[in-house]
Design a protein that fits this description.
This protein has 231 residues and is α/β, with parallel strands linked by helices. The protein folds into 2 domains: 1-141, Rossmann fold; 142-231, Thiamin pyrophosphokinase, thiamin-binding domain (Jelly Rolls, Sandwich), CATH 2.60.120.320. It contains 4 helices and 13 strands. It has helices spanning 44-49, 66-74, 90-98, 116-124; strands spanning 13-16, 36-40, 56-59, 78-81, 106-109, 136-140, 143-147, 154-155, 163-179, 188-190, 200-201, 208-210, 213-221. Strands 1, 2, 3, 4, 5, 6, 7, 8, 9, 10, 11, 12 and 13 form a 13-stranded mixed β-sheet that branches. It is elongated and about 55 Å long. It starts with 12 loop residues before the first strand and ends in a 10-residue tail after the last strand.
Amino acid sequence: MPPSARRDFLLRTIIFANGECSSPCDPLAWLRPGDRIIVADGGARRCLALGLTPHLLIGDFDSLPAETVETFRTRGAEIRRYPAEKDETDLELALYAALEQETEEVLVFGALGGRWDMTLGNLLLLAHPDFREAPIRIVDGPQSVTLLPRGRAYEIAGQEGDTVSLIPLRGDAKGVTTRGLRYPLKGGTLRFGATRGLSNLIVRSPASVTVEDGLLLCLVIANTSPPLPNP
């Protein structure tokens, strides 16, 4: 059933896409009461296997049996069907739907693995002009990735011993300052296409990153436990 109408706090949105999930990957460990669940097409199989009923099932349903769609419809899920020949992937449509309501964070499962074109396209959705300011995080097993907001400190969802990689997109990332990482930066520049930002390490928690200009991905690999939700 849909979450309670109580609105004194922001709800999170969980999206199940049709990609693969690395092991260990337990989306149930991330769920908390009130989370809104959106399923993008074939991600419905994972949702069904977990015993979850989504609030919204969206996509062209080209990789989903009709009986699965009807199962969720009878359980009260909203169904939005799109034509197979469209300009957006099912995950892109799911992200637009997620941002129709104010949300604390959007967590995406099943966005990676399988076809490289889909994996790269899904990662680059984080830099889409309509999404780059939104709190979206892709989670896959012990790894998670988000696009950093500009002009303010971002507290990394990790703990001591976790690996952190900072990867510029589309151009250089400038004014990069880190705290709590083994190899610090203070107002530095990470060049697009270079590897300087890879394989850093959290040595003091909470760790944070600030970027003043440019698009910068923050990828966290939890070395001892699943990645942490944002504080």
